[in-house]
Backbone:
């Protein structure tokens, strides 16, 4: 978004360096390695490094100006000084959002919101110009950076909002100021910061309080706590449902699989029925599909046009991406995990296995507070009911999962793998030549490390002429 430094200084209330008002800024960055001409480099403190120490490097790479919490006399570019750099980015992004012509669709939920964001953007892009978050840049830093990188002339912005503590949604909603606010599910995620499922519902539904005049909420009625919290905001709502016994404006029912990577869905969009095959092979995708059809309806899309625009799958790194390795199907769902997303991933992987071996390479679900052990025991019970042949676990909750599996009575193989060597041994002992392998865990478990090891083993065996 092309702004002058004078506009930026006025928006955030920072003193403007002499003679710098006409300097043009095209976007903001917080990583000096990404800096290029036209950038505003934001100096943010971090646990391991202070962005102020990298300002000179950003300018050397071409950054046109710097946003800092203290003067930087040795930096050869104009410096705007503000007490809180992160807060100033939010103020600037709100200022830019209010001046952009784009209609904003804001997406939040406990599971699948990055994929939903991509699906909504894909459909809207078939008719309109659209900007959206890169990957899941959805927090108090990622959201402003997304907005400031947009031109402001797009027809739509599709913005994902991620929260983990009370007050997060208030900070993000005040920046996004959506025309359409989507909350497609809730689950027991980030309970350390949000307290309970009711707390999650209230925190997610708080987005509705930031709808612009004439805006609409899109909310899933299948979650009673969420629907109650949404009604409290007294905003216009489009209701979603994925159950035949829950009436809604837009209902999406999973019918069955339709071949590799495909699913059959039955839609009812305010009385208009539609059956379609889409590249989403699990029942839990019904929530995403329903939400996309609701947003598209509000944007003027006929249902058949929406289905056509969804014909190609979106692919989001680390979100249930499937790849074939010999006779094994490896599922990369490594980005993150909570009880809701974990159960859905296990269920979908079990359906894909369809009689073949199912191996689960899983890691701890974090930020669950005092209920962490109980949630992991429940996950063990859930796994035991879904015919997995082996579980390889990384993290401190291994014993809780083992207890949930049956405390030794479960017929499958259970292994704890704290590191690469232990994983390699468990993989060699537990993984057959044919089957489905799911990799998933919370971000800090770095389950992608185990996925890469598994891929390397499969590649080596294939090169040697053997099975994966």
Residues:
């Amino acid at each position: 978004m092309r702004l002058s430094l004078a506009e930026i200084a006025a928006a955030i209330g920072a003193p403007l360096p002499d003679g710098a008002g006409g300097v043009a800024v095209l976007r903001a960055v917080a990583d000096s390695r990404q800096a290029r001409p036209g950038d505003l480099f934001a100096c943010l403190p971090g646990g391991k490094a202070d962005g102020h120490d990298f300002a000179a490097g950003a300018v050397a790479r071409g950054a046109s100006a710097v946003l800092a919490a203290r003067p930087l006399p040795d930096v050869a570019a104009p410096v705007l000084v503000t007490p809180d750099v992160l807060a100033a980015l939010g103020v600037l992004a709100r200022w830019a959002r209010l001046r952009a012509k784009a209609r904003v669709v804001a997406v939040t939920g406990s599971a699948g919101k990055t994929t939903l964001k991509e699906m909504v953007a894909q459909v809207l892009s078939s008719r309109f110009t659209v900007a959206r978050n890169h990957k899941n840049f959805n927090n108090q830093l990622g959201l402003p950076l997304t907005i400031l990188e947009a031109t402001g002339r797009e027809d739509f912005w599709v913005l994902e909002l991620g929260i983990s503590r009370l007050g997060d949604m208030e900070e993000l909603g005040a920046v996004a100021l959506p025309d359409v606010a989507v909350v497609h599910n809730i689950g027991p995620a980030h309970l350390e910061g949000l307290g309970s499922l009711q707390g999650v519902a209230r925190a997610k539904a708080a987005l509705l309080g930031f709808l612009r005049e004439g805006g609409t909420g899109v909310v899933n009625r299948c979650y009673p706590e969420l629907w109650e919290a949404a009604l409290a905001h007294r905003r216009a709502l489009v209701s979603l449902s994925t159950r035949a016994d829950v009436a809604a404006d837009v209902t999406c029912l999973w019918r069955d699989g339709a071949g590799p990577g495909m699913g059959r869905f039955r839609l009812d969009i305010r009385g208009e029925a539609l059956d379609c095959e889409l590249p989403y092979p699990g029942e839990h995708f019904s929530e995403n599909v329903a939400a996309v059809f609701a947003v598209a309806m509000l944007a003027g899309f006929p249902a058949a046009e929406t289905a056509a625009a969804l014909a190609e799958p979106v692919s989001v790194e680390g979100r249930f991406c499937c790849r074939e390795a010999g006779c094994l199907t490896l599922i990369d769902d490594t980005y993150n995990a909570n009880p809701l997303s974990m159960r859905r991933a296990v269920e979908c992987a079990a359906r894909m296995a369809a009689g073949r071996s199912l191996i689960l390479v899983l890691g701890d679900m974090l930020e669950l507070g005092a209920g962490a052990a109980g949630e992991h025991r429940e996950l063990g019970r859930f796994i035991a009911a879904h015919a997995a042949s082996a579980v390889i676990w990384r993290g401190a909750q291994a014993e809780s999962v083992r207890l949930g599996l049956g405390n030794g009575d479960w017929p499958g193989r259970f292994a704890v793998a704290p590191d690469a060597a232990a994983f390699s041994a468990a993989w060699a002992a537990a993984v057959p030549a044919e089957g489905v392998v799911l990799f998933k865990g919370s971000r800090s478990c770095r389950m992608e490390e185990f996925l890469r090891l598994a891929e390397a083993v499969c590649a080596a065996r294939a090169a040697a002429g053997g099975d994966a």
About this structure: The longest helix spans residues 447-463. The chain is about 35% helix and 20% strand.
